[in-house]
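Quick one: sequence plus adenosine-5'-triphosphate SMILES, need C-alpha cells.
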Amino acid sequence: MNDQANRLRQMNEMMGASRSAILKPIQTQARVITVTSGKGGVGKTNVTVALAVAFARLGKKVLILDADLGLSNVDVILGASAPGNLFQVIHNGLDLNDVVADGPLGIKFISGGSGIYDLSNLSDSQIQYFLHQVGQFDNWADIILIDTGAGLNRMVLNFVLAADEVVVVTTPEPTAVADAYAVIKAYAAKGGQSPVRLIVNRVRELAEGEGVLNKLAKVSQRFLGLPISHLGFIFEDRMVQKAVTSQVPLMVAYPDSVAARCIDRIAHSLLFGEDLPVPRGIRGLFQRLLARG
Ligand SMILES: Nc1ncnc2c1ncn2[C@@H]1O[C@H](COP(=O)(O)OP(=O)(O)OP(=O)(O)O)[C@@H](O)[C@H]1O
Ligand SMILES: [Mg+2]
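Reply:
Sure thing.
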C-alpha cells in the first residue's frame, strides 16, 4: 500500500467508522476467502484459524467470520470468545464493534449466528444498516476469512456462491473426497464461477494428497468443466489436537510443527501466488447474497 493510502487508512481508524466513507481511499476492499467442505469435521475451523494467524504474522489485518450454523468452535480454537453475533447487529441495532472479539496478533473475530443466513426477511432500513456496519470491515481488514459449515447445506451453498474465493477442505478419506466433489458439483450446477481451490488436510504422505488432488481435479474438469487448483497439503499432526486442547492457536503454540509449516506455505501461496483476485469486500458478498434472494 502506498504512503497516501496508508495515511488515509490511519486517519480512518482514528476518526472512527462514521467518517470512513468520506475518507476511504480507492481499493480498500477486504479480500474475502470462504472456507468450506463437503463432509464435516475435516479441519475447516482449524485451517481457518491457522491461516488467520499466518496472515497476521505477515502483517495483514485479519477478521474471521464464523458462518457455521452449528458449533464451529472458532472461539475455542482461537482462544477468544465473541460478546455477541451478527444477528444482534441486525435485529437489535447493535454496532458491529460491540460484538467483535479480539484474538491473538490483532486478529478480530465475529460470530455470524443465524442472522447471517436469515437476511431474506429484513426491511430495507435493516439491510442498509447492516451493509453499512459490515462495510466497516472492508475499511479495516486486509483479509476476511469465513468459516462456513459443510457446503451441502443450501444456505451455506448460497453463501459460498456469493463469495469471491472458495477454499474447499477435504481429507484423503474416500467419504470426505466424495462429499468434496458433491459440493463442487453443487457449486458448479448453481453457476459458481470462482475458481475452487483445494486443501487436502490430514495427509500421511505426499502421494496420498496428490492422489486426492489429481482425482478431484480430473473429474471436476471433465464432468463440470470447472478447474480446481491446488492450494496445498497439510500433514496429519497430533500438535493440531494438542493446540485445540490448550486453546492456543497451533501457529502460536507450535509454530514449528509440521502442520504449522504446511499452513505457512498455503498462506504464502494465497498471498503471493498467481491469479490473485481483485478483492470485492464483505459488503459486496452480502449484497450479492441479498440479490440472490
Ligand atoms: N492436520 C491435522 N492433524 C491432526 N488432526 C487434525 C488436523 N486437522 C484437523 N484435525 C482435527 O480434526 C478435528 C476436526 O477439526 P475442525 O473442527 O477444524 O473441523 P471442521 O471441518 O471445522 O468441523 P465441523 O464441520 O464440525 O465444523 C479436530 O479435532 C482437529 O484437532
Ligand atoms: Mg468447524
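Residues 11-25 have pLDDT under 50 and may be disordered. Residues 30-292 form a domain with the Rossmann fold fold (CATH 3.40.50.300).
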